Amino acid sequence: MMVLVDTPVWSLALRRKQSDLSPREQDLKSALQELVLDGRAQIVGPVRQELLSGIRAEETFRRVRDALRAFDEPQLGVQDYEEAARISNVCRARGIAGSAIDFLICAVAHLRHWEVFTTDHDFVRFSKVLPIRLY
User: Fold this and answer.
1) Tag placement on the chain: N or C end, fewer CB within 10 Å?
2) At a CB cut-off of 8 Å and minimum separation 6, what does 11 contact?
3) Are 47 and 5 within 8 A, CB to CB?
4) Are 41 and 5 in contact (CB under 8 A)?
5) What is the SS3 string spanning the chain?
6) How far are the Cα atoms of 11, 23, 104, 122 from residue 92, in angstroms, in the given order?
7) Distance between CA atoms of residues 72 and 58, nearest Å
8) DSSP strand pairing (115-117 vs 133-134)
9) How big is the chain by its Cα radius of gyration, in Å?
């Protein structure tokens, strides 16, 4: 099964120094490396943009950008955005707020029957009311 990897996990692997990672974060980075080696790690454009945004050093920006270029992105279409809006409405009706990008991640994963790999605890709340699977 493919796994849609969210920004915080990519950030651990590509933006943080190995020596700064806690044992749990090192485990997350190793899990991502396994997914990459298995050809199961997926990224979408908004995650790519979030990950590259805010990198101050041009050299670091180029290094992260070039590493991400190894990953193709699924073609996002009208159905993805409509499903993101629908599930946003479902969550909001139940008092659960989230960002447009988070709901797009949920929609893409749901429509393609993928899992979501994230450290963002909002996704645990989303999974209580949405048919998404967390990695």
Assistant:
1) N
2) 51
3) yes
4) yes
5) CCEEECHHHHHHHHCCCHHHCCHHHHHHHHHHHHHHHHCCEECCHHHHHHHHCCCCCHHHHHHHHHHHCCCCCCCCCHHHHHHHHHHHHHHHHCCCCCCHHHHHHHHHHHHHCCEEECCCCHHHHHHHHCCCEEC
6) 28, 35, 15, 13
7) 23
8) parallel
9) 15
Token pair 């393609």 is found at 112
Interatomic CA distance for residues 123 and 74, integer angstroms: 21
| pTM metric for this prediction | 0.94
- pLDDT tens profile 56-99: 999 999 999 999 999 999 999 999 999 999 999 999 999 999 99
